[in-house]
Design brief:
Length: 509
Protein backbone atom coordinates (compact mmCIF):
# COMPACT_ATOMS: atom_id res chain seq x y z
CA UNK A 1 0.00 0.00 0.00
CA UNK A 2 2.73 2.39 1.01
CA UNK A 3 4.63 1.84 -2.25
CA UNK A 4 1.56 2.82 -4.23
CA UNK A 5 0.99 6.04 -2.33
CA UNK A 6 4.62 7.19 -1.81
CA UNK A 7 7.08 6.26 -4.62
CA UNK A 8 10.40 4.83 -3.51
CA UNK A 9 13.22 7.38 -3.38
CA UNK A 10 16.74 7.63 -2.08
CA UNK A 11 17.11 7.92 1.71
CA UNK A 12 18.14 11.57 1.51
CA UNK A 13 15.06 12.40 -0.56
CA UNK A 14 12.78 10.51 1.81
CA UNK A 15 13.96 12.55 4.83
CA UNK A 16 12.88 15.72 3.05
CA UNK A 17 9.26 14.60 3.51
CA UNK A 18 9.44 15.16 7.30
CA UNK A 19 9.19 18.98 7.26
CA UNK A 20 6.33 18.73 4.79
CA UNK A 21 4.45 16.40 7.13
CA UNK A 22 5.15 18.74 10.06
CA UNK A 23 3.82 21.76 8.18
CA UNK A 24 0.72 19.95 6.94
CA UNK A 25 0.11 17.46 9.72
CA UNK A 26 -3.67 17.77 9.69
CA UNK A 27 -3.90 17.07 5.95
CA UNK A 28 -1.62 14.05 6.35
CA UNK A 29 -3.69 12.73 9.24
CA UNK A 30 -6.77 12.99 7.10
CA UNK A 31 -5.09 11.16 4.25
CA UNK A 32 -3.85 8.41 6.55
CA UNK A 33 -7.29 8.07 8.12
CA UNK A 34 -8.81 7.69 4.68
CA UNK A 35 -6.30 5.01 3.71
CA UNK A 36 -6.79 3.11 6.98
CA UNK A 37 -10.56 3.13 6.50
CA UNK A 38 -10.35 2.19 2.86
CA UNK A 39 -11.38 5.50 1.33
CA UNK A 40 -8.42 5.68 -1.02
CA UNK A 41 -9.75 6.03 -4.55
CA UNK A 42 -6.60 4.50 -6.01
CA UNK A 43 -7.30 1.10 -4.51
CA UNK A 44 -8.34 -1.51 -7.09
CA UNK A 45 -11.33 -2.72 -5.06
CA UNK A 46 -13.89 -0.24 -6.39
CA UNK A 47 -16.29 -0.71 -9.26
CA UNK A 48 -16.91 1.93 -11.91
CA UNK A 49 -19.19 4.83 -10.74
CA UNK A 50 -22.27 4.80 -12.95
CA UNK A 51 -25.15 5.87 -10.65
CA UNK A 52 -26.42 9.45 -11.08
CA UNK A 53 -28.58 11.17 -8.45
CA UNK A 54 -31.78 10.23 -10.28
CA UNK A 55 -30.78 6.61 -10.82
CA UNK A 56 -29.65 6.38 -7.18
CA UNK A 57 -33.01 7.67 -5.92
CA UNK A 58 -34.87 5.31 -8.27
CA UNK A 59 -32.64 2.44 -7.17
CA UNK A 60 -33.31 3.16 -3.47
CA UNK A 61 -37.07 3.57 -3.96
CA UNK A 62 -37.14 0.48 -6.16
CA UNK A 63 -35.17 -1.50 -3.59
CA UNK A 64 -37.45 -0.35 -0.78
CA UNK A 65 -40.88 -0.72 -2.37
CA UNK A 66 -41.30 -4.44 -2.56
CA UNK A 67 -44.15 -6.52 -1.24
CA UNK A 68 -44.50 -4.75 2.11
CA UNK A 69 -46.91 -1.95 1.23
CA UNK A 70 -49.14 -4.42 -0.62
CA UNK A 71 -49.29 -7.08 2.12
CA UNK A 72 -48.13 -5.60 5.49
CA UNK A 73 -50.91 -3.05 6.30
CA UNK A 74 -53.28 -5.66 7.72
CA UNK A 75 -50.53 -7.10 9.96
CA UNK A 76 -49.89 -3.62 11.40
CA UNK A 77 -53.61 -3.06 12.08
CA UNK A 78 -53.99 -6.50 13.71
CA UNK A 79 -51.10 -5.87 16.10
CA UNK A 80 -52.10 -2.35 17.24
CA UNK A 81 -55.90 -2.81 17.08
CA UNK A 82 -56.99 0.45 15.42
CA UNK A 83 -56.59 2.25 12.06
CA UNK A 84 -55.48 5.47 13.72
CA UNK A 85 -52.63 3.80 15.61
CA UNK A 86 -51.70 1.86 12.47
CA UNK A 87 -51.21 5.14 10.57
CA UNK A 88 -49.07 6.43 13.46
CA UNK A 89 -46.92 3.27 13.26
CA UNK A 90 -46.37 3.83 9.52
CA UNK A 91 -45.36 7.47 10.00
CA UNK A 92 -43.11 6.74 12.99
CA UNK A 93 -41.49 3.85 11.10
CA UNK A 94 -40.74 6.21 8.23
CA UNK A 95 -39.24 8.76 10.61
CA UNK A 96 -37.11 6.07 12.28
CA UNK A 97 -35.87 5.04 8.85
CA UNK A 98 -35.20 8.71 8.02
CA UNK A 99 -33.07 9.19 11.17
CA UNK A 100 -31.18 6.05 10.19
CA UNK A 101 -30.76 7.29 6.62
CA UNK A 102 -29.46 10.70 7.80
CA UNK A 103 -26.99 8.97 10.12
CA UNK A 104 -25.85 6.83 7.21
CA UNK A 105 -25.57 9.97 5.06
CA UNK A 106 -22.81 11.30 7.30
CA UNK A 107 -21.07 7.93 7.41
CA UNK A 108 -21.44 7.51 3.64
CA UNK A 109 -19.82 10.84 2.81
CA UNK A 110 -17.00 10.15 5.27
CA UNK A 111 -16.31 6.58 4.13
CA UNK A 112 -17.04 6.52 0.42
CA UNK A 113 -16.23 2.90 -0.33
CA UNK A 114 -18.83 0.26 -1.08
CA UNK A 115 -19.69 -2.08 1.77
CA UNK A 116 -21.96 0.14 3.86
CA UNK A 117 -22.35 -1.14 7.42
CA UNK A 118 -19.26 -3.33 7.17
CA UNK A 119 -17.05 -0.28 6.56
CA UNK A 120 -18.64 1.77 9.36
CA UNK A 121 -18.44 -1.01 11.95
CA UNK A 122 -14.82 -1.70 11.04
CA UNK A 123 -13.87 1.97 11.31
CA UNK A 124 -15.68 2.49 14.63
CA UNK A 125 -15.12 -0.79 16.48
CA UNK A 126 -12.38 -2.74 14.69
CA UNK A 127 -11.99 -5.87 12.58
CA UNK A 128 -13.56 -8.41 14.95
CA UNK A 129 -17.03 -6.77 15.15
CA UNK A 130 -16.93 -6.11 11.40
CA UNK A 131 -16.20 -9.77 10.73
CA UNK A 132 -19.03 -10.89 13.03
CA UNK A 133 -21.28 -8.56 11.03
CA UNK A 134 -20.06 -10.21 7.84
CA UNK A 135 -20.65 -13.65 9.32
CA UNK A 136 -24.22 -12.81 10.33
CA UNK A 137 -25.33 -10.49 7.53
CA UNK A 138 -23.10 -11.35 4.60
CA UNK A 139 -23.61 -15.08 5.08
CA UNK A 140 -27.15 -15.28 6.48
CA UNK A 141 -29.28 -12.10 6.77
CA UNK A 142 -28.94 -10.72 3.25
CA UNK A 143 -29.62 -14.10 1.70
CA UNK A 144 -32.72 -14.53 3.90
CA UNK A 145 -33.94 -11.09 2.80
CA UNK A 146 -33.60 -12.05 -0.86
CA UNK A 147 -35.43 -15.31 -0.16
CA UNK A 148 -38.35 -13.42 1.46
CA UNK A 149 -38.74 -11.19 -1.58
CA UNK A 150 -38.45 -14.11 -4.00
CA UNK A 151 -41.08 -16.14 -2.13
CA UNK A 152 -43.49 -13.18 -2.04
CA UNK A 153 -42.96 -12.57 -5.76
CA UNK A 154 -43.68 -16.19 -6.58
CA UNK A 155 -46.67 -16.40 -4.24
CA UNK A 156 -48.48 -13.56 -6.02
CA UNK A 157 -47.47 -14.74 -9.47
CA UNK A 158 -48.75 -18.27 -8.85
CA UNK A 159 -51.92 -16.89 -7.20
CA UNK A 160 -52.99 -15.38 -10.51
CA UNK A 161 -53.16 -18.85 -12.06
CA UNK A 162 -53.62 -21.24 -9.10
CA UNK A 163 -55.67 -21.23 -5.91
CA UNK A 164 -53.87 -21.25 -2.54
CA UNK A 165 -55.79 -24.43 -1.69
CA UNK A 166 -54.28 -26.32 -4.64
CA UNK A 167 -52.19 -29.27 -3.35
CA UNK A 168 -49.19 -28.24 -5.44
CA UNK A 169 -49.34 -24.49 -4.65
CA UNK A 170 -46.47 -24.57 -2.13
CA UNK A 171 -44.16 -26.47 -4.47
CA UNK A 172 -45.05 -24.15 -7.36
CA UNK A 173 -44.39 -21.09 -5.17
CA UNK A 174 -40.95 -22.26 -4.10
CA UNK A 175 -40.04 -23.35 -7.62
CA UNK A 176 -41.06 -19.94 -8.95
CA UNK A 177 -39.00 -18.17 -6.27
CA UNK A 178 -35.91 -20.23 -7.07
CA UNK A 179 -36.37 -19.60 -10.81
CA UNK A 180 -36.67 -15.83 -10.23
CA UNK A 181 -33.37 -15.83 -8.31
CA UNK A 182 -31.63 -17.71 -11.11
CA UNK A 183 -32.92 -15.27 -13.75
CA UNK A 184 -31.77 -12.24 -11.76
CA UNK A 185 -28.34 -13.83 -11.23
CA UNK A 186 -28.06 -14.14 -15.02
CA UNK A 187 -29.09 -10.50 -15.60
CA UNK A 188 -26.73 -9.07 -12.97
CA UNK A 189 -23.89 -11.33 -14.15
CA UNK A 190 -24.22 -10.11 -17.73
CA UNK A 191 -24.06 -6.41 -16.86
CA UNK A 192 -24.43 -4.18 -13.80
CA UNK A 193 -25.91 -1.45 -16.01
CA UNK A 194 -28.48 -3.91 -17.34
CA UNK A 195 -29.49 -4.71 -13.77
CA UNK A 196 -29.73 -0.98 -12.95
CA UNK A 197 -31.96 -0.30 -15.99
CA UNK A 198 -34.25 -3.19 -15.05
CA UNK A 199 -34.50 -2.00 -11.44
CA UNK A 200 -35.26 1.58 -12.51
CA UNK A 201 -37.94 0.44 -14.99
CA UNK A 202 -39.64 -1.69 -12.36
CA UNK A 203 -39.46 1.20 -9.89
CA UNK A 204 -41.48 3.42 -12.23
CA UNK A 205 -44.05 0.64 -12.79
CA UNK A 206 -44.55 -0.03 -9.07
CA UNK A 207 -44.94 3.70 -8.37
CA UNK A 208 -47.63 3.74 -11.07
CA UNK A 209 -49.45 0.88 -9.31
CA UNK A 210 -49.32 2.74 -5.99
CA UNK A 211 -50.59 5.87 -7.74
CA UNK A 212 -53.61 3.88 -8.98
CA UNK A 213 -54.21 2.61 -5.42
CA UNK A 214 -54.05 6.16 -4.02
CA UNK A 215 -56.46 7.41 -6.72
CA UNK A 216 -58.91 4.61 -5.82
CA UNK A 217 -58.64 5.64 -2.17
CA UNK A 218 -59.34 9.28 -3.02
CA UNK A 219 -62.30 8.12 -5.11
CA UNK A 220 -63.70 6.16 -2.15
CA UNK A 221 -63.16 9.10 0.21
CA UNK A 222 -65.08 11.27 -2.20
CA UNK A 223 -67.97 8.80 -1.92
CA UNK A 224 -67.92 9.12 1.87
CA UNK A 225 -65.71 6.15 2.80
CA UNK A 226 -64.58 7.58 6.13
CA UNK A 227 -65.86 4.91 8.55
CA UNK A 228 -62.43 3.58 9.52
CA UNK A 229 -60.95 7.05 9.73
CA UNK A 230 -63.73 8.01 12.17
CA UNK A 231 -62.88 4.95 14.31
CA UNK A 232 -59.51 6.60 14.97
CA UNK A 233 -57.72 5.16 18.02
CA UNK A 234 -60.66 3.25 19.48
CA UNK A 235 -59.71 -0.21 20.87
CA UNK A 236 -55.99 0.43 20.43
CA UNK A 237 -53.80 -2.33 21.92
CA UNK A 238 -51.67 -0.57 24.54
CA UNK A 239 -49.10 -3.38 24.97
CA UNK A 240 -45.76 -1.93 23.73
CA UNK A 241 -44.32 -5.44 23.38
CA UNK A 242 -46.75 -6.36 20.61
CA UNK A 243 -46.06 -3.04 18.87
CA UNK A 244 -42.61 -4.33 17.96
CA UNK A 245 -44.23 -6.84 15.60
CA UNK A 246 -46.21 -4.00 14.01
CA UNK A 247 -43.05 -1.91 13.68
CA UNK A 248 -41.15 -4.78 12.07
CA UNK A 249 -43.99 -5.25 9.55
CA UNK A 250 -43.95 -1.53 8.67
CA UNK A 251 -40.16 -1.22 8.78
CA UNK A 252 -39.90 -4.20 6.45
CA UNK A 253 -41.70 -2.02 3.90
CA UNK A 254 -39.15 0.76 4.50
CA UNK A 255 -36.11 -1.53 4.55
CA UNK A 256 -33.71 -0.91 1.71
CA UNK A 257 -32.61 2.65 2.43
CA UNK A 258 -29.13 1.37 3.38
CA UNK A 259 -28.59 -0.01 -0.13
CA UNK A 260 -27.31 3.42 -1.24
CA UNK A 261 -24.42 3.23 1.22
CA UNK A 262 -23.73 -0.37 0.25
CA UNK A 263 -22.95 0.86 -3.28
CA UNK A 264 -21.49 4.28 -2.39
CA UNK A 265 -18.33 3.57 -4.40
CA UNK A 266 -20.44 3.24 -7.56
CA UNK A 267 -22.29 6.59 -7.17
CA UNK A 268 -21.09 9.62 -9.09
CA UNK A 269 -20.19 12.62 -6.89
CA UNK A 270 -20.90 10.49 -3.82
CA UNK A 271 -20.24 13.23 -1.24
CA UNK A 272 -23.26 15.18 -2.51
CA UNK A 273 -25.46 12.55 -4.11
CA UNK A 274 -25.44 10.02 -1.24
CA UNK A 275 -27.14 12.31 1.36
CA UNK A 276 -29.42 13.85 -1.27
CA UNK A 277 -30.58 10.46 -2.50
CA UNK A 278 -31.15 9.16 1.04
CA UNK A 279 -33.28 12.13 2.08
CA UNK A 280 -35.25 12.37 -1.19
CA UNK A 281 -36.01 8.64 -1.25
CA UNK A 282 -37.15 8.51 2.41
CA UNK A 283 -39.45 11.54 2.12
CA UNK A 284 -40.92 10.03 -1.05
CA UNK A 285 -41.54 6.70 0.69
CA UNK A 286 -43.15 8.20 3.80
CA UNK A 287 -45.55 10.22 1.63
CA UNK A 288 -46.45 7.33 -0.67
CA UNK A 289 -46.90 4.81 2.17
CA UNK A 290 -49.08 7.16 4.24
CA UNK A 291 -51.36 7.90 1.26
CA UNK A 292 -51.54 4.19 0.38
CA UNK A 293 -52.60 3.27 3.93
CA UNK A 294 -55.24 6.00 3.96
CA UNK A 295 -56.50 4.45 0.71
CA UNK A 296 -56.72 1.01 2.35
CA UNK A 297 -58.59 2.48 5.34
CA UNK A 298 -61.08 4.26 3.10
CA UNK A 299 -61.80 1.30 0.79
CA UNK A 300 -61.94 -1.63 3.25
CA UNK A 301 -64.08 -2.25 6.29
CA UNK A 302 -62.43 -2.76 9.66
CA UNK A 303 -63.10 -6.51 9.48
CA UNK A 304 -61.52 -6.67 6.03
CA UNK A 305 -58.49 -4.76 7.28
CA UNK A 306 -58.02 -7.39 9.99
CA UNK A 307 -58.67 -10.55 8.00
CA UNK A 308 -57.69 -10.05 4.35
CA UNK A 309 -54.12 -11.21 3.59
CA UNK A 310 -53.70 -10.34 -0.11
CA UNK A 311 -54.97 -6.87 0.66
CA UNK A 312 -54.02 -5.16 -2.61
CA UNK A 313 -55.74 -7.83 -4.72
CA UNK A 314 -58.89 -7.54 -2.62
CA UNK A 315 -58.90 -3.73 -2.96
CA UNK A 316 -58.71 -3.94 -6.76
CA UNK A 317 -61.55 -6.45 -6.90
CA UNK A 318 -63.77 -4.59 -4.43
CA UNK A 319 -63.48 -1.22 -6.15
CA UNK A 320 -64.15 -2.45 -9.69
CA UNK A 321 -66.55 -5.36 -9.20
CA UNK A 322 -69.39 -2.83 -9.03
CA UNK A 323 -69.04 -2.63 -12.82
CA UNK A 324 -69.31 -6.41 -13.22
CA UNK A 325 -67.37 -9.58 -12.53
CA UNK A 326 -65.07 -8.94 -15.49
CA UNK A 327 -63.88 -5.63 -14.07
CA UNK A 328 -63.57 -7.15 -10.60
CA UNK A 329 -61.28 -9.83 -11.99
CA UNK A 330 -59.36 -7.17 -13.92
CA UNK A 331 -58.74 -5.18 -10.72
CA UNK A 332 -57.55 -8.32 -8.94
CA UNK A 333 -55.17 -9.26 -11.75
CA UNK A 334 -53.89 -5.67 -12.12
CA UNK A 335 -52.76 -5.46 -8.52
CA UNK A 336 -51.53 -9.05 -8.58
CA UNK A 337 -49.25 -8.20 -11.50
CA UNK A 338 -48.28 -4.95 -9.75
CA UNK A 339 -47.06 -6.88 -6.69
CA UNK A 340 -45.22 -9.31 -8.99
CA UNK A 341 -43.47 -6.42 -10.77
CA UNK A 342 -42.75 -4.67 -7.47
CA UNK A 343 -41.20 -7.70 -5.80
CA UNK A 344 -39.22 -8.76 -8.87
CA UNK A 345 -37.65 -5.30 -9.19
CA UNK A 346 -36.95 -5.24 -5.46
CA UNK A 347 -35.36 -8.69 -5.67
CA UNK A 348 -33.07 -7.51 -8.47
CA UNK A 349 -32.00 -4.43 -6.48
CA UNK A 350 -31.59 -6.42 -3.27
CA UNK A 351 -29.43 -9.09 -4.85
CA UNK A 352 -27.30 -6.45 -6.59
CA UNK A 353 -26.73 -4.49 -3.38
CA UNK A 354 -26.17 -7.57 -1.21
CA UNK A 355 -23.53 -8.95 -3.58
CA UNK A 356 -21.27 -5.97 -2.82
CA UNK A 357 -20.81 -6.97 0.82
CA UNK A 358 -19.02 -10.30 0.26
CA UNK A 359 -17.17 -8.68 -2.69
CA UNK A 360 -15.70 -5.93 -0.50
CA UNK A 361 -15.07 -8.35 2.38
CA UNK A 362 -13.07 -10.62 0.08
CA UNK A 363 -11.03 -7.68 -1.19
CA UNK A 364 -10.12 -6.87 2.42
CA UNK A 365 -9.13 -10.42 3.35
CA UNK A 366 -12.18 -11.41 5.40
CA UNK A 367 -13.79 -13.67 2.80
CA UNK A 368 -12.14 -16.12 0.39
CA UNK A 369 -10.26 -14.17 -2.29
CA UNK A 370 -12.27 -15.72 -5.09
CA UNK A 371 -15.40 -13.87 -3.90
CA UNK A 372 -13.67 -10.57 -4.77
CA UNK A 373 -13.22 -11.40 -8.44
CA UNK A 374 -14.55 -8.92 -11.02
CA UNK A 375 -15.61 -10.17 -14.44
CA UNK A 376 -13.30 -8.49 -16.96
CA UNK A 377 -15.85 -8.20 -19.78
CA UNK A 378 -18.83 -6.85 -17.84
CA UNK A 379 -17.17 -5.32 -14.75
CA UNK A 380 -19.56 -7.12 -12.37
CA UNK A 381 -18.53 -8.76 -9.07
CA UNK A 382 -19.52 -12.09 -10.55
CA UNK A 383 -18.64 -14.39 -7.66
CA UNK A 384 -20.33 -12.09 -5.14
CA UNK A 385 -23.53 -12.16 -7.22
CA UNK A 386 -23.36 -15.95 -7.52
CA UNK A 387 -22.64 -16.33 -3.81
CA UNK A 388 -25.66 -14.30 -2.61
CA UNK A 389 -27.87 -15.80 -5.29
CA UNK A 390 -26.91 -19.36 -4.41
CA UNK A 391 -27.43 -18.93 -0.65
CA UNK A 392 -30.79 -17.19 -1.25
CA UNK A 393 -31.72 -20.09 -3.54
CA UNK A 394 -31.05 -22.50 -0.66
CA UNK A 395 -33.09 -20.46 1.87
CA UNK A 396 -36.14 -20.54 -0.41
CA UNK A 397 -36.88 -24.23 0.06
CA UNK A 398 -37.22 -24.72 3.86
CA UNK A 399 -38.39 -21.19 4.74
CA UNK A 400 -41.56 -19.52 6.01
CA UNK A 401 -42.06 -15.88 4.95
CA UNK A 402 -43.44 -14.62 8.28
CA UNK A 403 -40.57 -16.07 10.31
CA UNK A 404 -37.98 -14.86 7.83
CA UNK A 405 -39.27 -11.27 8.05
CA UNK A 406 -39.04 -11.36 11.86
CA UNK A 407 -35.51 -12.80 11.77
CA UNK A 408 -34.28 -10.33 9.14
CA UNK A 409 -35.75 -7.38 11.05
CA UNK A 410 -34.23 -8.42 14.37
CA UNK A 411 -30.76 -8.98 12.87
CA UNK A 412 -30.85 -5.85 10.71
CA UNK A 413 -31.76 -3.42 13.45
CA UNK A 414 -29.18 -4.79 15.88
CA UNK A 415 -26.37 -4.01 13.45
CA UNK A 416 -27.90 -0.77 12.22
CA UNK A 417 -27.99 0.38 15.84
CA UNK A 418 -24.22 -0.10 16.05
CA UNK A 419 -23.87 1.93 12.84
CA UNK A 420 -25.98 4.78 14.23
CA UNK A 421 -23.81 4.78 17.34
CA UNK A 422 -20.75 4.90 15.05
CA UNK A 423 -21.58 8.52 14.14
CA UNK A 424 -20.51 9.98 17.55
CA UNK A 425 -17.86 7.27 17.99
CA UNK A 426 -16.09 8.26 14.75
CA UNK A 427 -16.39 11.96 15.55
CA UNK A 428 -14.43 11.21 18.69
CA UNK A 429 -11.95 8.73 17.13
CA UNK A 430 -11.35 10.56 13.85
CA UNK A 431 -12.25 14.23 14.26
CA UNK A 432 -9.97 15.32 11.39
CA UNK A 433 -11.50 13.05 8.76
CA UNK A 434 -13.42 15.17 6.19
CA UNK A 435 -17.20 15.08 6.42
CA UNK A 436 -19.08 16.77 3.61
CA UNK A 437 -22.36 16.13 5.45
CA UNK A 438 -22.91 16.28 9.23
CA UNK A 439 -26.07 15.66 11.22
CA UNK A 440 -27.05 16.88 14.65
CA UNK A 441 -26.15 14.21 17.21
CA UNK A 442 -29.79 14.21 18.27
CA UNK A 443 -30.61 12.27 15.05
CA UNK A 444 -28.33 9.25 15.66
CA UNK A 445 -29.36 9.36 19.34
CA UNK A 446 -33.03 8.97 18.37
CA UNK A 447 -32.07 6.22 15.93
CA UNK A 448 -30.12 4.34 18.63
CA UNK A 449 -32.96 4.59 21.17
CA UNK A 450 -35.41 3.33 18.55
CA UNK A 451 -33.09 0.42 17.83
CA UNK A 452 -32.87 -0.52 21.51
CA UNK A 453 -36.67 -0.78 21.64
CA UNK A 454 -36.83 -2.80 18.41
CA UNK A 455 -34.13 -5.24 19.51
CA UNK A 456 -35.16 -5.65 23.17
CA UNK A 457 -38.93 -5.79 22.51
CA UNK A 458 -38.93 -9.18 20.73
CA UNK A 459 -37.35 -10.84 23.78
CA UNK A 460 -40.61 -10.25 25.69
CA UNK A 461 -42.75 -11.68 22.87
CA UNK A 462 -40.70 -14.58 21.47
CA UNK A 463 -37.36 -14.97 23.33
CA UNK A 464 -36.22 -18.40 22.03
CA UNK A 465 -35.49 -17.36 18.40
CA UNK A 466 -33.77 -14.18 19.65
CA UNK A 467 -31.44 -16.18 21.90
CA UNK A 468 -30.81 -18.63 19.06
CA UNK A 469 -29.74 -15.86 16.69
CA UNK A 470 -27.47 -14.34 19.34
CA UNK A 471 -25.81 -17.73 19.72
CA UNK A 472 -25.32 -18.07 15.96
CA UNK A 473 -23.92 -14.54 15.86
CA UNK A 474 -21.36 -15.31 18.57
CA UNK A 475 -20.10 -18.27 16.52
CA UNK A 476 -18.42 -15.65 14.35
CA UNK A 477 -15.92 -14.89 17.12
CA UNK A 478 -14.05 -18.24 17.09
CA UNK A 479 -14.29 -18.31 13.29
CA UNK A 480 -12.55 -14.93 13.18
CA UNK A 481 -9.76 -15.92 15.55
CA UNK A 482 -9.32 -19.26 13.84
CA UNK A 483 -9.33 -18.21 10.19
CA UNK A 484 -9.06 -14.42 9.83
CA UNK A 485 -6.94 -13.14 12.69
CA UNK A 486 -3.28 -13.06 11.67
CA UNK A 487 -2.09 -14.46 15.01
CA UNK A 488 -4.49 -17.43 14.83
CA UNK A 489 -5.00 -16.99 18.58
CA UNK A 490 -8.08 -19.19 18.37
CA UNK A 491 -5.89 -22.26 18.02
CA UNK A 492 -4.08 -21.35 21.25
CA UNK A 493 -7.14 -20.97 23.45
CA UNK A 494 -8.77 -23.96 21.75
CA UNK A 495 -5.75 -26.04 22.77
CA UNK A 496 -6.16 -24.79 26.34
CA UNK A 497 -9.86 -25.63 26.27
CA UNK A 498 -9.06 -29.13 25.01
CA UNK A 499 -6.57 -29.65 27.86
CA UNK A 500 -9.10 -28.47 30.48
CA UNK A 501 -11.89 -30.65 29.12
CA UNK A 502 -9.56 -33.65 28.86
CA UNK A 503 -8.64 -33.30 32.53
CA UNK A 504 -12.20 -32.67 33.75
CA UNK A 505 -13.77 -35.41 31.63
CA UNK A 506 -10.77 -37.75 31.80
CA UNK A 507 -10.84 -38.03 28.04
CA UNK A 508 -8.38 -37.87 25.20
CA UNK A 509 -8.42 -37.21 21.46
Amino acid sequence: MGNQMFPQTEPTERTELIPILDRDNECCDRRLSEIEMGVDKDLPTELEPHFTLLSTVLFAVGQTIGSGIFVSPNEVVKQVGSPGMALVIWVVSGLISLTGALSFAELGTMIKRSGGEFQYIKAAYGKLPSFVYLWMCGVIRNSMGCAVIALTFSSYLISIFMSHEHPHFLLAKKTGAATAIVLIIVVNSISTKCGVRMANTFCVLKLLALFVLIVLGAWKLGEGGTENIKVGFKDTNMNPGTWTTAFFAALWSYSGWNCINMMAGEIKNASKNVPRALVISQITLITVYLLANIAYCSILTLEELYNVDAIALFVGKKMLIRYGDYWGRFGEIFFGISVVISTYGSLSSSLMGSSRLPFIAAQEGMFPKCVGLIQTRTGTPIVGVLYIGFTAFLFVWPSNITNLIAYVGFLSWFWWGLCFLAVPVLRWKMPCCPRQFKVSLIIPAVAVLSTVYLVVGPFFVNPIPCLLWIGITLLGVPIYYGYVDGDKSCSRWMDKLNDILAKVLRAEL
